[in-house]
Specification:
Number of strands: 0
Largest sheet: none
Order of helices and strands: HHHHHHH
Number of domains: 1
Helix content: over 70%
Shape: extended
Strand content: under 5%
Number of helices: 7
Length: about 200
């Protein structure tokens, strides 16, 4: 009769980590990392085209999702009118974007940047008022910077939108590099674990 060994909590945790490492596909992680690097670099080099691609992909999703919702509305008893309305709006919005992709992209950038500018201006005014009440010069200075930034963004929304896409591209590329490095390290760990298990058996 074989003796059943009881693992300590530390050994159990190590076993769980090993099982997760062996079940993860380092190849998929590597592919995702390289893909993120590509899209990040492309967004940084061609922010306008990247925005256009994202808007078109989003429009395709609206149309497909709207069609599925139209079919699903037949089985929905409550809120059927709302589901139909949402489906029709999604399909029409997707068709409108496909019909006028450049105008839709510019409008989306303008709206997004405008919202960011308004929120930033409100935050800046709040900091100026709070700094004036507490006699904190740095807080007033920060609020003025926020207000000036929002004014510049409102006057040049397309330029600000391109800059925003470039920043997003940088973050995506950096995340892709980190994921790529992790996948290669995971490959090395899986090889070592596989070799250890083979020699132990």
């Amino acid at each position: 009769m074989e003796e059943q060994t009881t693992l300590t909590p530390e050994e159990t945790q190590i076993k769980v980590v090993i099982n997760k490492c062996m079940s993860c596909s380092w190849g998929q992680l590597l592919f995702r990392g390289l893909l993120a690097i590509f899209f990040g670099i492309y967004a940084f080099m061609r922010p306008g085209k990247m925005l256009l691609i994202l808007v078109i992909v989003n429009a395709a999703f609206w149309i497909v999702d709207g069609i599925f919702m139209l079919f699903a509305s037949g089985s929905v008893k409550s809120y059927r009118g709302l589901v139909l309305f949402q489906a029709i709006i999604g399909i029409l919005a997707g068709i409108a974007v496909f019909s006028y992709p450049i105008f839709s992209t510019l409008f989306l950038v303008w709206m997004t940047v405008l919202i960011i500018a308004v929120i930033t201006m409100i935050s800046g005014v709040k900091e100026i008022v709070l700094g004036a009440k507490t006699k904190n010069g740095w807080l007033v200075f920060g609020g003025i910077i926020y207000v000036l930034f929002s004014i510049v963004v409102i006057h040049a929304p397309i330029l600000a939108g391109g800059t925003l896409v470039r920043f997003i591209g940088i973050f995506v590329a950096v995340g892709g590099v980190a994921l790529t490095i992790f996948s290669l390290k995971l490959r090395s760990v899986q090889k070592n674990i596989g070799g250890t298990l083979s020699s132990a058996s």
